[in-house]
Amino acid sequence: MNTYRTILSFFLMLLLSACQNRNTQMKDIQNEQQKSSQIKAESKMVWIPGGTFLMGSDNPDFPDAHPLHEVTVNGFYMDEHEVTNAEFANFIEATHYVTVAEQALDPKDYPGVPSDQLVPGSAVFTPPNRKVHLNDALQWWTYVPGATWNHPFGPSSSIKGKENDPVVHVCYEDAVAYAKWAGKRLPTEAEWEFAAQGGQGNNKFYWGNELKPNGKWTANIYQGNFPDNNTIEDGYAGVAPVKTFPANPYGLYDMEGNVWEWCNDYYRPDYFAKSPKVNPQGPEDSFDPDEPSAVKRVQKGGSFLCSDQYCIRYKSGSRGKGEVTSASNNLGFRCVKDKVEGDK
Questions:
Q1: Where is the signal peptide, in residue numbers (predicted)?
Q2: How many domains does the chain have?
């Protein structure tokens, strides 16, 4: 087996690697918070008024989103779009933070794997040149050594000219670190879903009940035969710059498609049956019966790879999930902030 095939065979394991101790980095980030307002180009935040809504879904395809239930959330501020490459670059420059995808891998965690093959990197969507069965994601996902937030397709790639694209290859703890530096936090799942509905209620899609209102695509998702033939009807084979597609009634962009977005909640498929009715914060721990040993957090909104053929969880009320140290080139985040005394 050659080196490439060896790396590919282990890429899912690498994506589920244990977090290294980040106390030193987090301390540096806290020290930089006082300076950050003078350095970063902060995205506009919009006020989400809060209220009561129906959360989850009665769609039989989404059993972990059952039951459809009434939830009330307080008002909060939310980034109008995903955190961009430019914004994340300012964070890196200010804090010298090293993302999980850039960290060295400890051979002790991978017994039997040659140390020279334990190369930092991340998962990149790599479409095959033929039709394939949809039961094996390794046919379109590749572990690419050197793929990071600023080299999204590997060491030879760059984000130059893509400053307004959503940052990707960001793990949960990377997103938390950025949020703390920016004086913000990650949204709860309930906050995210309330904001995505835009005050329009629980429809089939967050934008309404028609896939293409007035014959136009309103989100960056996949068209064509997945994963080998993207017809690119919406104009984008991969991520689209933020604010490319229309905003929802709250003024929020890309609440569906483009990139998955981290939420702060742990993931459990049974949580909605017992979650609080007011400001739910998620369960106390994580459990996914498909991977019982993995620690997972909720992801919302789908990505440019979602369609009715595969990954239909761009639809309203559905839930995504991700291992906290996993990253890919269709995963990003946005932040929220609580209203404080003196805010108008």
A1: 1-21
A2: 1
Residues of the chain with pLDDT under 50: 1-24, 26-41
Q: What is the pLDDT of residues 129-161, one digit of tens each?
A: 999 999 999 999 999 999 999 999 999 999 999
Task: With H, G, I as helix, E, B as strand and everything else as coil, classify residue 215.
Answer: helix
- Distance CA(258)–CA(220), nearest Å, equals 5
E-strand stretches of the chain = 45-48, 51-55, 69-73, 76-79, 121-125, 141-145, 224-225, 229-230, 260-266, 296-300, 320-323, 331-332, 336-337
CA-based R_g, the chain, Å: 19
For residue range 11-45, list pLDDT tens digits in order: 444 444 433 334 445 444 444 443 433 334 457 99
Using CA atoms, how far residue 141 sits from 100, 124, 150, in Å, is 18, 6, 19
Give the tens place of pLDDT for each residue, 266-282.
Answer: 999 999 999 999 999 99
Task: Kindly state whether residue 342 falls inside one of the protein's structural domains.
Answer: no
**Structural element, H or E, at residue 14:** helix 11-15
- Number of Cβ within a 10 Å radius of residue 52: 12
What's 195's domain CATH number?
A: 3.90.1580.10
In which element (H, E) is residue 66 found? none
Question: Residue 21 domain-assigned?
Answer: no
